[in-house]
């Protein structure tokens, strides 16, 4: 069964939006999805690849479904909603959730969305709650900017990621919640984007809104792998979520729109992303944890993240990105079975002066790539800071990045590994890598990095060559 998310950009009128405005800050953020779970779908059939190989590894084992269904169940029609694709149902959804909130300590509640096209602006969820989309239900984000309130920026970013000030609230929003489920049967979440306010060639917005934001969520949650279509969330949602699963998900975003990340775990822990297909104008999966001094102060790392069997394409960015907003730290990330094609990079670690933070214990294995400009890249120097308060002495620490079992065809150039002067970029281990690179671009570019490489073609840079017969990298 094919599960898809369709993102469509909202064009500025007449002359279009300047590129500097970075029109879309839409992404799927794992911190966001920390809200979500699906207690009744645990026994649903797996996707086709899992049927073919029932012994395939899964990282979803920490999830345990609820033992009993929600006590109170209502239809959104009970609160006056109309599923004709034209009537605004914002107040109906808000009224429904306010009513169901009273059942939070009385067995929980469920709001059903029947077949139809349900146009709505933003509304909040509540704890011990399920939002269930029946077969054929479609939730559409309202095109009226007045239905998207502006709220405070995330503490770990200090401001809206794209602009100074606050940010538009998410379409389906949650803050400080636990035990929240969003699920459905052959249903869709927004297939239209949220509007910008445009006049002539100028488009104005505070910070681009998102789909679901789970801020400071707790307990074990899961998002349905096959029966729910998807979430659109902002790139910078440092949601502090934990115990999250995204499985068998298809995300289709505009390939040439900026900031249409696929999935972003941001300040999130115990995250499982597996068997997903993504087309995006930005990173397919990007691991983040806050921006410069704000991320350092909040100090909420992204940790214990498994990304398994993800495939897709992004013409301008990377299959797996870490950073560049990683100031709260990133630790214990495992990537297995990545397949990327027609992309700028397969793996990219992005840092900068002023970020601080750390990236440690990252393992990437079984990577396949075709027609990639730069297969493996460490990059720096984006000069991208929230305000003038960033500390030029705050340097990142990168330690223990292992990359193994890589095959690349029609690769544009050899890996580019650019560290930062006086920063720690050490214990890089690269093994069993074969890249078929254009003849004029076979030389690695390395600066301010140290480590080891074995069974690598083309020949790695001097910084990664070791003459030792006993090596922590070879034996790891």
The number of distinct structural domains comes to 2
Unreliable spans: 1-55, 193-209, 213-239
Form type: elongated
Mean pLDDT comes to 78
- Which strand-content bin applies to the residues? 35-45%
- By DSSP (H or I, 4+ residues per run), the number of helices equals 4
Helix content: under 10%
Total strands: the figure is: 28
Spatial separation of the terminal alpha carbons: 38 Å
* Radius of gyration, taken over Cα atoms and rounded to an integer in Å: 22 Å
Largest sheet: 14 strands, parallel
The SS-based structural class is mainly beta
Protein name: Polygalacturonase
InterPro entries: GH28_Enzymes, Glyco_hydro_28, Pectin_lyas_fold, Pectin_lyase_fold/virulence
Keywords: Glycosidase, Hydrolase, Membrane, Transmembrane, Transmembrane helix
GO molecular function: polygalacturonase activity
Descriptive terms for the model:
single chain, about 475 residues, mainly beta, Pectate Lyase C-like, 2 domains, 14-stranded parallel beta sheet, 4 helices, 28 strands, about 40% strand, disordered N terminus
What does this entry look like structurally?
The protein is mainly β and 476 residues long. The chain folds into 2 domains: 1-238, no CATH class; 283-476, Pectate Lyase C-like. 6% of the residues lie in helices and 38% in strands. The chain has 4 helices and 28 strands. The strands form 6 sheets. Strands 1, 16, 17, 18, 19, 20, 21, 22, 23, 24, 25, 26, 27 and 28 form a 14-stranded parallel sheet that branches. A hairpin with a 2-residue loop joins β13 (197-199) and β14 (202-204). The longest helix is centred in the first third of the chain and has 11 residues, at 90-100. It starts with a strand and ends in a 19-residue tail after the last strand.
């Amino acid at each position: 069964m094919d599960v898809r998310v369709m993102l469509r950009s909202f064009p500025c009128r007449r002359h279009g939006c300047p590129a500097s405005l970075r029109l879309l800050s839409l992404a799927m953020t794992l911190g966001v999805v920390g809200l979500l779970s699906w207690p009744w779908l645990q026994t649903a059939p797996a996707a086709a690849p899992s049927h073919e190989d029932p012994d395939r590894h899964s990282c979803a084992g920490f999830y345990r479904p609820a033992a009993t269904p929600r006590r109170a169940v209502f239809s959104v029609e009970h609160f006056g909603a109309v599923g004709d694709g034209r009537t605004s149902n914002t107040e109906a959804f808000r009224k429904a959730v306010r009513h169901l909130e009273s059942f939070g300590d009385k067995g929980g509640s469920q709001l059903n969305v029947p077949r139809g096209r349900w146009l709505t602006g933003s509304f909040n969820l509540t704890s011990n709650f399920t939002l269930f989309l029946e077969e054929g239900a479609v939730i559409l984000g309202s095109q009226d900017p007045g239905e998207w309130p502006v709220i405070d920026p995330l503490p770990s970013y200090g401001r809206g990621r794209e602009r100074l000030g606050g940010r538009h609230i998410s379409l389906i929003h949650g803050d400080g919640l636990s035990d929240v489920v969003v699920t459905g049967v052959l249903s869709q979440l927004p297939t239209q984007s949220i509007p910008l306010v445009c006049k002539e060639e100028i488009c104005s917005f505070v910070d681009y809104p998102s789909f679901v934001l789970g801020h400071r969520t707790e307990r074990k949650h899961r998002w349905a792998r096959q029966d729910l279509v998807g979430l659109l969330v902002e790139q910078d949602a440092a949601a502090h979520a934990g115990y999250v699963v995204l499985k068998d998900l298809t995300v289709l975003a505009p390939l040439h729109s900026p900031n249409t990340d696929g999935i972003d775990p941001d300040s999130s822990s115990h995250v499982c992303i597996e068997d997903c297909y993504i087309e995006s104008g930005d990173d397919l999966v990007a691991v983040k944890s806050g921006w410069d001094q704000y991320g350092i102060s909040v100090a909420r790392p992204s940790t214990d993240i498994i990304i398994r069997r993800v495939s897709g394409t992004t013409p301008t960015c990377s299959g797996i990105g870490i950073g560049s907003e990683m100031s709260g730290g990133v630790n214990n990330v495992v990537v297995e079975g990545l397949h990327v094609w027609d992309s700028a990079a397969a793996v990219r670690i992005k840092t900068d002066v002023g970020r601080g933070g750390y990236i440690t214990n990252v393992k990437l294995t079984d990577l396949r790539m075709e027609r990639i400009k730069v297969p493996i890249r460490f990059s720096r120097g984006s000069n991208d800071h929230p305000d003038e308060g960033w500390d030029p002495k705050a340097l990142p620490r990168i330690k223990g990045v292992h990359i193994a079992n890589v095959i690349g065809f029609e690769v544009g150039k050899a890996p580019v590994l650019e560290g930062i002067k006086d920063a720690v970029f050490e214990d890089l281990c690269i093994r069993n890598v074969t890249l078929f690179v254009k003849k004029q671009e076979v030389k690695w570019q390395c600066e301010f990095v140290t480590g080891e490489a074995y069974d690598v073609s083309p020949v790695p840079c001097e910084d990664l060559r070791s003459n030792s017969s006993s090596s922590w990298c070879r034996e790891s």
